[in-house]
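FIELD: query
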Amino acid sequence: MAGHTLKIALIGNPNTGKTSVFNLLTGLNQQVGNYPGITVERKSGYCKLPDNSKGLILDLPGTYSLNASSMDENVVIELLMNKTDKDYPDVAVVVTDVENLKRNLLLYTQIKDLEIPTILVINMADRMDRKGISLDIPYLEEHLKTRIALISSRKGTGIDHLKELIVNYKDLSHEPCLNASTIDPDYFNKLRQAFPNQLLYKLWLVITQDANFGIIDMKELQGTSFTKTKPELKRLQQKETIKRYQFINDVLKVGQTIDTSGAKDLRAKLDRVLTHKVFGYVIFFGILMLIFQSIFSWSEIPMNFIDESFAWLASFTAEHIQPGKLTDLITQGIIPGIGGVVIFIPQIAFLFLFISVLEETGYMSRVVFLMDNIMKRFGLSGKSVVPLISGTACAIPAIMAARNIENWRERLITILVTPFTTCSARLPVYTILISLIIPDRYVFGIFNLQGLTLMGLYLLGFAGAILSAWVLNKILKTKYKSFFVAEMPNYKLPLFKNIGLNVLEKTKAFVYGAGKIILALSIIIWFLGSHGPGSNFDNAEEIVKKDAIERQVNPAHWEDMIAAYQLENSYIGIMGKTIEPVIRPLGYDWKIGVAIVGSFAAREVFVGTLATIYNIGSSAESEDEGTIRQRMAAEIKPATGEKVFNFATGVSLLLFYAFAMQCISTLAITKKETNSWKWPIIQLIGMSGFAYIVSLLAYQLLK
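FIELD: result
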C-alpha cells in the first residue's frame, strides 16, 4: 500500500449526510470545482488512512438509483461504468440514512451488481434510540454481502471503523446481492452469449441508459436479436426495481426492528406550520428579513475596520516608499482595488452562513416545496426553485444545477432567468450604494431601513426572474410540464463543522475568483488613468496653474485640480467621456460609466474600479482623505456642485445592477449548457436592455 493512493467513491441518495461524511473524512483537505455552490462536478479531497496510506475521496452527486433521469445522475453512472476513467474507484462507499434504509438500499444493490468492492455506511446512528430503531449488523452484513460502518456524522463516531474497512477493501465480497437477470432469463441469456466478456449488469445499464460508457456503445447493441422497444425496456426496469425492493424488504424484516411507540412525530407538526399555505410564506419572509437585517448590523464593525485599514495602508505606503510609478501603482491601483473586494468579506460570509444553516437544518427543502406552487403558475417546475435559490450564491453553479430538470424547455427558461436572482457578486455594489443613499435609520424601532432596502432588492431580483419566466413560457409555448418530486429530509440541528467548511469554501472561492479579476483590472485601470495621449495630459500642471491664476483660485486646491485634469485627459478619461452621452440620461458620469464597463467582467469590480479611479484623481497630499465609502460620498459633479451619488443616481444604479447581465462567466456557462451562442446573446441583450430602460425611467422620475 505504500505510495498508493486509494480512490474512494462516496455515493448515496440526497439528504443521507453524504457531505457530512465527506467533511469528516477529508477535513480541510478538499479540492472543490471551479465554482462555488451547488454543482454536478466531482468534488474531491484527501484523507489519511490507518496504514499511513492516502485516500482520494470523490464526493459524487446525490442519486436515487442507477436509472438516470438527469445529467447529474449520469455523472455517477459514467464514472462507475468506465474503468478507463482516471477517477474510477478502487472501492465504493454507499452512504445511507438509518431512517430510510429501504429506499437507500436500492442504489446499494445496483452498485453491488457492478462488482465494485462496496462498503455500506449507515449514517445518523445517534437517532436510533429516539426513533426506536435497532439493527442486526452481522445479519445485514451476511445478506447484503458487504461490511457495514455504523456512524454518526453529527457526533463523529464510526469514522475510524470506516477507514479500517476502506484500507481492507480487498477483503470485500464482489458477489452481487441478487441475480437481476431472473426478471427475463431468456433475454439476459442472449445478452450474455452476445457479449461473453462483458459484465451482464453493465450491459443492461448500457441498453437502458443514455450516457457515455466508453468501451461499450449502444450502436453495438442495435439491430441485434435482443433489441427491445422503450416501453418493453421500461417494463423490465420496473420489474427489476420491484425485485430489488422485495429482496430489501426480506432482509430488513430480520435485520431491522422499529418500535414506533417511543418515537415522537415532531417533524409532521413542524411541517404543518412551515409549509402552511399562509403561515409558511409569512415565516419564510420573516426569516429573510432577519437575514438581511443581520447582514447590515453584524458586518458593520468588521467592514469599517477593513475599510479604514486599507485607507491607512495606502497612506502609509505612500509616505514610506520613494515616490514613483511603482508607488503610484501600489497606492492608487492595487491597494484600493483589492480593498474594494476584501471589505465585503464579512457580509458575504454572513450570507453564506445563513444559507448553510437553512440547508443543514432541512428548512431549505421546505422552501423549495413551498415555492413550487408559485413556480407552476409561471411555467416553471418546482425543480427550478433549486437553481433560483442557489443563484443567491452564484449564477454559474445555479445554472449547472438546472441539469436535473428533465423538460428541456423548462430547463432552458430556468437557465435564462436565473441571472436575475441576486448573487453574492451584486452584494458589494448593493451595500455600498445603499449605505450612500439610504439613511441608517430604524423603522418601528426594530427594522433597519438599509436592511429592508437590501431585502427589497433580493425580492425584486426574484420577481424579475419569475416574470421573465412567464414571458418566455408564453413565447416558447411549453406544451407539457414535468412533475415536481422533492424529498423532505428530517429536521436536524446544524453541524457547525459543515457550516464552517461551507462558509470558508464559498468565501474563499468568491475572494480568489474576484480577486484575480480585480487585481488585473486595477493595474490596467491605473495604467490607463495615469497615462494619456497628447499635450493636454503631459502639460496638465502648466495648463491648470495658468487657468487657476486667471480665476484667482486658492493655491491649496491646485494639486487636486491638476490630478482631476490629468485623469480627464488620460486614456480612461477619454474612454469614459466617449460613452458618457449614452449613460448621462441615467444619471451617471464618465467615471461611473468606466466602472460599469469594467464590471462586465464581474459585477463586484464596480466598487474596486471606482476606488482606483478616485485614488488616481486625488493629489498626493490628499491620500489620507478617507475610505472608499468616504471618497464616493464626497464625489461631486463639477458643473453643478451636487453629489454624484445622490438618491436618484443611486436608485438608478441599484436597478441597473438588479437587472443587467454583467458577468462574462455566466454567459459562458449559458453557452456551455445550451450548446449555442443564440441564448446567451438573447440573455445579454434582453437583460441589459431592460436594465437600461428601468434605470432611465427611475432617474428621470426621481431627479
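FIELD: remark
Residues 32-39, 619-625 have pLDDT under 50 and may be disordered.
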